[in-house]
Structure formats: C-alpha cells, structure tokens
Amino acid sequence: MDQAVQLQLGDDGILVATMNLPGRPMNVVTDTLMEGIAAAVARLAEPGVKGLILASGKADFCAGGDIDRMSKWTTPQEPFEASMAMKRVLRQLETQGKPVVAAIAGHALGGGLELALACHARIVLDNPRLKLGQPEVKLGLLPGGGGTVRLSRLVGIQATLQICGEGADFSPQKALATGFITALAATPEALTQAARDWIAANPKAKQPWDAPKFRFPGGDSKSPAMAQLWAIAPSIAYGKGRGLYPAVGHIMSAVFEGGLLGFDAASVVESRYFAACCLSREAKNLIGTLWYGLNAVKKGASRPVGVPPQKVAKLGVLGAGMMGAGIAHVAAKAGIEVVLIDTTQDAAERGKAHTQALLDAAVKKGRSTPDKAAALLARITPTTDFARLAGCELVIEAVFEDRAVKAGVTRQAEAVLRAGAVFASNTSTLPITGLAQASARPAQFIGLHFFSPVEKMPLVEIIVGAQTSDETLARGFDFVRQIGKTPIVVNDSRGFYTSRVFGTYVMEGLAMLAEGVHPRSIEEAGLQAGMPMPPLALQDEVSLSLAVHVADQTRCDLAAEGRSYDEHPGMAVARRLCEIGRVGRKAGRGFYDYDGGDKRLWPGLTGLYPPAPVQPPMRELVDRLLYAQAVESARCLAEGVLRSAVDGDVGSILGWGFAPCHGGTLRFIESVGVGVFTARATELAARYGPRFDPSAVPALAPREGHPPS
Length: 709
Ligand code: NAD
Known about the structure:
Elements: E1 5-9, E2 14-19, E3 28-29, H1 31-44, E4 51-56, E5 64-65, H2 67-72, H3 77-94, E6 100-104, E7 108-109, H4 111-117, E8 121-125, E9 132-133, H5 147-154, H6 157-166, H7 172-178, E10 183-185, H8 188-201, H9 224-241, H10 246-258, H11 263-278, H12 281-298, E11 314-318, H13 322-333, E12 337-341, H14 345-364, H15 370-378, E13 380-383, E14 394-397, H16 403-416, E15 422-425, H17 432-435, E16 445-450, E17 459-464, H18 470-482, E18 486-491, H19 498-515, H20 519-528, H21 535-542, H22 544-560, H23 569-579, E19 592-595, E20 598-601, H24 605-608, H25 618-638, H26 645-656, H27 665-672, H28 674-688
Parallel strand pairs: 2-4, 3-5, 4-6, 6-8, 7-9, 8-10, 11-12, 11-14, 12-13, 14-15, 15-16, 17-18
Antiparallel strand pairs: 1-2, 16-17, 19-20
Bound molecules: nicotinamide-adenine-dinucleotide.
Nicotinamide-adenine-dinucleotide (NAD) binds next to helix 13 and helix 16.
C-alpha cells in the first residue's frame, strides 16, 4: 500500500480516507497528497457513499505545506497556481452535499489545519500535546489553502487575525473554546465513533458560508465593529514588527479584503497574497535559517561523526546560583539524576528551591501534576559533598566567574570522577583552553555556555578548547539535545561567538550616544533594526559594571600576552555612567530610571551627552547596528571561531534575538548581497572606524538559494 491516501468503504456506506504519504515521516500537503484527496472526493460522489472521514495513518494528522517544494518557486505564478489547485479540491470536498468529518488524532498545522477546515466537522483527540494552528507567519508565509477565508467565516475576523497573524499553537481544548473545531474525543476509538455518529446525524452537511443567509460571526470587514478593529490593527502590528515582516501585513490584507468579498473571490485574493509572501526576501531568510538551518543543527551538522550517541544518566552541577539552579532544573526535567553542589548546604538547597518554585507554578497552571513534580524534584540532590559526584558521566561548573575558584572545583571534581567523564564549564567570558589548564585531562574539558534564564533560553553555545577531543564534543552535543536545547559549536576565543557579537550591538548604541545621537533615536533604531530590545535598555539589563569588568579583564589578559587592546568607543560611555553610579537595572539606575515595573530614559542623559543639532538619518543608525554585528560574525567565521555559517545564523537568532527576518547575522550579508554589503560596510568603516571593515566577508561561502551578488 503506497498510496498517499488510502480509501476504505465500510458496510455502513462511510468512506474512510487515510492520509499516509509514502516515504515521509509526516503528512505534508504535496501534489501527491492532494491527488489522493481528489480521488476520495470522486469516490464520495458515487451513489451509495454516505459520507467521508478524513484521517491519518501517521502520528500527526498533517504537519503543513511542503517547504521543499515552496523553496523552489521562483515566479509568483507557481505559488498562486499551487494554492488555487489545492483550493479547487477542497471546494469540491465541502460542496458535495455529503458530510465530511476530519478525525484528528495528531498535529494539524498549517496546510493540515486547512484540510480540516474544509471538512464539515473537526473532531479532535483530547490530548493536550496535540497542536493545531496556522504557524505559516513564523516562516514569513500566510495560509494559502483557504485558511484565512474559512477561519474568518468560522470564528470571525478578529480571532482569525490572531490565529494567523501570531501563528501560535492551540491545544484541542483551546481550539474548541476558540470555535474552530467541533468536538473532542477522549480516545482514538471514541474519535472514530464520534466521526461516524456525526455523519449519521448530518446527512446533508453544508458549510456555514454556503448557507443562503450566511453572515460573518462578529461582522464582515465593513461592519461597524470591524471598522473599529481595522482602524487600529495595522498600527498595533507595525508597533510589534516595525514593518519588517510583510507576511503580517499580507495576512491582514487577505482577511480584510476577504471580509468584503464572496467565498470564491476571497480565495483568489488569499492566493495572490500567498504568492507575494512565498517570494519575499523575509520568507527566504526565515525558511533558510529557522527551518533548514535549525533542522540541520538539531540533526547534528556540527557533531563529530563516528562517535556513538550517548545519554547522561547522572549529572553533577557545581554552583547552585542562578545558572547552576537553572541547569539542574532542565536536566532533572529531562529525567537526569542531578547532584547539585554548593559551598554550604543552605546554598545548595536554595538552588533546589528554584526548581520547587517553578514546579509549584507549573502545577498551579495545570502544566504538570503533583506526582510528576515530586518525581522531578526527587531527582535533584543538593549537597556540599564532592564525593557524591562519583558515577556522573558529566559535570558542569557554574561557580563564580573567577579562574582560581573554577580551577579549584575542577580539581575537586576530577578527584572523584571516573576516567571517561566529561567536565564542562559554563563560563561566559573566560577562554576554555586557559580554564582547561586546571584539568588533569584537558581532552575531556569543554565549554557549555547556557543563557539566562536557562529554563527559557533555547540555545547552548558549545566551546571547543584547543585540546578538547571529538568524543568530548559529541558527548556535550548529545547532552544538549537530551535536555531539548539547540547546540551550536564554536572554537575557543575571547567572548566565544555569542558574547563577542552581541557586544558589538550594544556598544554601537553606546558609541552613538557619545557622538551626540539622541538616546530616543538610538533606541528606535534598535527596534527598527528588528532587535527585540534596544541597545541602551539591553546594556542596562546585562549591567554596565559587568561590561566594564569584562573590558578591564580583557585588557589585563592581553597585556599579559604582550598584546594591546583597542577599546570600543562605546566603552567610554559605560565607564562614565558607572562612575556616577548608574550601573544598570539591578541598581535601579542606568541609561533608564527604574521605578518598580516602570522605566523611562534618564532625563539627565541628554545633559551628559547633549544631542547634536543635526541628527543622522535613521537608516544610518539602523545600518550601523546591523552591520556591526554582521561584520563581526564574518570575522568569527574567517578566524575559525565559528565552524559554520549555519551555527552563526541560528546562534544569533536563538542566542540574542538577532532580527529573524534577516535570517541571522551571516545570512543578512547574503540577503543584502555580498557586493552591496561590502560597499556599504566600507563606507561605514571610513566614517566610524575599522570595526566596520568588511575584509572578512569573502569567508562567507555562497549557500543554496542565496547566490552572492
Ligand atoms: P551566581 O553568583 O548566581 O552563582 C554562583 C554560585 O556558585 C553561588 O551559589 C556560589 O555559592 C557558588 N560557588 C562559589 N564557589 C563555589 C565552590 N568553590 N564550590 C561550589 N559552589 C561554589 O552566578 P551565576 O550567575 O549563576 O553564574 C555562574 C557562572 O555562569 C559564571 O561563570 C558566569 O559567568 C556564568 N554565566 C552566567 C550567566 C548569567 O546570565 N548570569 C550566563 C551565562 C554564563
């Protein structure tokens, strides 16, 4: 049986169409799948067939569109035709005059949900892990299979804007409450029975929008209630995305225009906007990095081959502070036994209490049960006794950022560890090769750089020291995957990759201040560049005193190596603010004043750095913030700090939120075009200094889909 959709007619006259795309782990909307559904529609038309159940033979119902096919489209006709072809089949399905029910026992996302929306009823297995939704916007696309058209007629315009514009997943319960599924079933058997019952009870099923007196729930686009919504929705969307995500605007336009038109005309309009999205630069960037890149990274593109995969059963965490407690929590959550060590029993217990607090909140919100929470908590053993580390396959230190303290715990741990165990440091700034000098087995020493807060941040930067072995790297990589995080692999260097490039963003903002750029313009430029937080606010979060401390340490270290240190012009600003006690958010005073949850730019800032009478154009500021990061990333690649461009792109988005619409720091260069980028960076270098010098850019090898200009 290698048909995409298998058909089975029961004695009761109900045709079951089971989607099971050959050679694919999941069902995706391909021509083959749609041909199978078209065959089901033809069979449904036969006399004697009373109704149809659309089901899946795979774990998911249908995961969405075929990204591989979409990535090959080069003209707007291709996506338009593909989208219209899918719609023709779905329209036939829902206008046969016979009931069609989607029996959904796994994820129904994107095109998968669109298939289900063309059925007269959607009955869903009540499994809280099951996901329903229209996530296309996250890849710069919009639902091109009638999603905006049917949803707006099913749940109203406002809910449709939310479902398609935000792209969030819905649990079955939430989908039922929102109104885009019909009913829930407790078990797979009950699901099939409910689908059969629905067909028996609705022999002449029709879609609401095909009824003669159909009205949009909540009103169509020209109704007074919707007119109010349309007056503000575009500005809210612009405020969030600064116009960097055209798909959001296209979704709004498709829903707005579709809300003024009949079903068929609205479908054509949606397909036109779909075509516009498919060919946009933003969709190519998002798909390139957050689909292909991320999948490659997770599958182990940077993991040494030939080392058998291994799991960690027992983990040691040294230091139960902010980071150690977070690492212990995510490991215990993944089922790993954790020994959590600090200098006093109280401090170790406080680290475990962090997990207790997170679990209490999860139980309260219904995300966990008291039993599961208790089992997770029991996996963490707080102690001061290093002997308890015996049997650990991996130990991660997260003690103070101090070489001597780190060296001490390395030796203490290694004294009890078995021969094959790996020792990792969560240092944020200290080169791994130097820290490994305290180790008796530097080949088994590695950097595992987590981000704060550990529970939320998806990235771990793995740092390979000069002596770290491939086997150690593979084990670090496997552990990061085991706890469900995304690993990028970089070679050892000061600031590694993420801290080094992230620093160029905030420092550029600080340098602008010294030049007389108005602080409000600097912050606006950060947001217009697509960064989640503007530079001055971000520097306040990470603390100005920390930046000064790291710079001083770097100067010292380089002097010891006989090298000089060219300080970034932004650093003088950080020093000046520290001198007057404005060290950042933790002190309640930095570039901003903090008053409880409120913050506002410190009024004295323009006294300290008077704005110049002529302000530079916003484009110049935005370019500086983006180019500074891109040039530094290209340097990381040229110097071999980054081992691959894809790690650089994924790391920049997941690590410090580099504007996803640009596809990451390096894809940004390709997306602008290497020639154009180099010319502009040269211009910026002449104006602001060698930090913009693009001579490292040629290290970027052209990647598929992005020919260099
Ligand atoms: P923290 O001060 O919150 O915690 C450090 C903990 O280590 C304290 O509980 C301390 O009692 C304990 N400790 C100190 N000496 C010890 C010893 N000899 N044996 C056992 N425990 C000892 O610090 P943190 O923010 O959790 O940072 C820890 C490490 O993680 C540092 O190296 C830091 O640079 C790095 N890091 C921090 C962040 C961040 O955002 N805070 C991010 C990435 C990496």
